[in-house]
């Protein structure tokens, strides 16, 4: 199990709200005790731990929180592979079919429904499983990294929390995806699951468009084949605004321009390659994107846990909301295969930060419920949707 790492157990509350459950599971992950693992692997069943690397929060499986009351399904991308999850205060107490009873110490805490891995992942296209081109994320979102290489990995300048090239080096994906393969997977997926939107990500490329140029033909081809399919793309601020316009003209519906860390100095520390981009560069790109895609159609991941949740932090959240951008707080998680260790954060602080962000969004008229495509619509990696519902109830 590697070096001994001290985990300070902060126990989640008894009879928690969906917001508190989701934050605890997103941050700490879930522990699968050996007897339960044996049960999962009974009869030679190969337990699927979820994707190991790649862009975004990897190393987990998708679950639905079984809640008697809540109208909105609460979908959670729960970490199962990280060191942190191996010591998580929340553990699997028993499994009955797809229903998992979760305990906190000895007390039952919640029930989760495990979402199946779709069969199309294992169907072959040009000699490779479809999952090596595109994956189903949560319930209705297909996601793929169209170029798995990032310039910052070249010079050892990668973001410390990123695992984008790990899945490529492990042979779990292909370097560059083209619209032909994405379309073939989409057709297979539509035969099995109700796909409504697509998330395209990319490693930052050296050209002025930072990779946007690679998206344009893919978006055009997908939209001409499936005009109603909603498409989301993610990229770092490009050198010129025209690329953001060109992507819209190609048919893109919403975008993610992820600042990830609000404090410039902290961002520089965790993202040495991207450190050349300052807050003003993100504000400029967001403003252009909001003009082009509209309010609530531009978002940014905020990796909660890497910087103080200070007044300055929330002042920048307010600035984002005022610019028409949806802040998407994601509790930072360790990606298996990276040396990155997640800093300790108090769960109550994390929950109250979500409540504060939801309040600032409300004040600025930011409504994640109307984002047409991408992570905000998917919601599996953040509890901001639950914080908004709690605020409105
Ligand atoms: S929010 Fe959904 S689409 Fe985005 S990375 Fe998480 S699971 Fe994937």
Biggest sheet strand line-up: 8-9-10-11-12-13-14
Helix content: 25-40%
CATH topology of the largest domain: TIM Barrel
Put simply, the count of helices is 14
Strand content: 15-25%
Task: Provide a descriptive summary of the structure in words.
The structure is a single chain. 33% of the residues lie in helices and 18% in strands. The strands form three sheets. A seven-stranded mixed β-sheet has the order 8-9-10-11-12-13-14. The protein has a five-stranded antiparallel β-sheet with strand order 2-1-5-4-3, covered by helices on one side. The chain has a two-stranded antiparallel ribbon with strand order 6-7. The chain folds into two domains: 18-114, no CATH class; 119-392, Alpha-Beta Barrel (TIM Barrel), CATH 3.20.20.70. By secondary structure, it is of the alpha/beta class. It is globular, with a radius of gyration of 20 Å. Helix 7 packs parallel to helix 8 (242-250). It has helices at 18-28, 34-40, 83-86, 151-154, 166-169, 179-190, 212-225, 242-250, 264-270, 279-293, 311-322, 347-363, 375-378, 384-392; strands spanning 60-65, 74-79, 90-96, 99-104, 107-114, 124-125, 128-129, 135-137, 141-145, 197-201, 230-234, 254-256, 298-304, 326-331. Bound molecules: iron/sulfur cluster (SF4). Residues 56-57, 77, 137-138, 141, 143, 199, 375, 378, 380-381 line the site of iron/sulfur cluster.
């Amino acid at each position: 199990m590697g070096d001994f790492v001290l985990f300070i157990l902060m126990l989640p509350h008894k009879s928690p709200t969906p917001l508190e459950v989701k934050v605890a599971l997103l941050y700490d992950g879930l522990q699968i005790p050996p007897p339960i693992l044996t049960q999962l692997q009974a009869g030679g069943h190969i337990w699927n731990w979820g994707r190991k690397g790649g862009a975004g929060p990897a190393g987990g499986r998708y679950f639905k929180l079984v809640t008697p009351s809540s109208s909105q399904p609460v979908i959670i991308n729960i970490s199962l592979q990280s060191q942190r999850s191996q010591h998580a205060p929340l553990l699997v107490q028993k499994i009955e079919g797809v229903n998992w009873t979760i305990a906190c110490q000895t007390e039952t805490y919640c029930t989760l429904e495990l979402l199946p891995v779709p069969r199309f992942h294992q169907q072959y296209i040009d000699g490779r499983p479809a999952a090596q081109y595109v994956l189903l994320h949560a319930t209705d979102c297909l996601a793929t990294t169209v170029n798995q290489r990032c310039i910052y990995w070249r010079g050892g300048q990668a973001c410390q929390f990123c695992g984008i090239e790990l899945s490529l080096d492990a042979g779990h994906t292909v370097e560059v995806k083209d619209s032909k393969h994405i379309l073939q997977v989409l057709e297979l997926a539509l035969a099995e699951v109700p796909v409504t939107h697509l998330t395209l990500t990319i490693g930052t490329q050296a050209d002025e468009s930072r990779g946007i140029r690679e998206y344009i033909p893919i978006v055009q081809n997908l939209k001409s084949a499936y005009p109603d399919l909603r498409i989301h793309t993610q990229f770092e601020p490009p050198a010129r605004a025209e690329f953001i316009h060109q992507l819209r003209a190609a048919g893109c519906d919403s975008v993610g321009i992820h600042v990830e860390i609000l404090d410039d100095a902290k961002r520089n520390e965790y993202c040495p390659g991207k450190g050349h981009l300052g807050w003003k560069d993100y504000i400029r790109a967001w403003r252009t994107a909001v003009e082009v895609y509209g309010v609530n159609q531009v978002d940014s991941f905020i990796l909660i846990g890497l910087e103080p949740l200070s007044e300055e932090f929330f002042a920048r959240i307010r600035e984002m909301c005022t610019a028409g951008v949806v802040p998407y707080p994601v509790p930072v998680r360790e990606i298996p295969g990276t040396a990155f260790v997640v800093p300790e954060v108090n769960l109550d602080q994390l929950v109250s930060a979500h409540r504060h962000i939801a309040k600032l969004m409300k004040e600025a008229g930011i409504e994640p419920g109307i984002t047409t495509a991408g992570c905000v619509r998917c919601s599996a990696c953040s509890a901001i949707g639950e914080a908004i519902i709690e605020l409105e109830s």
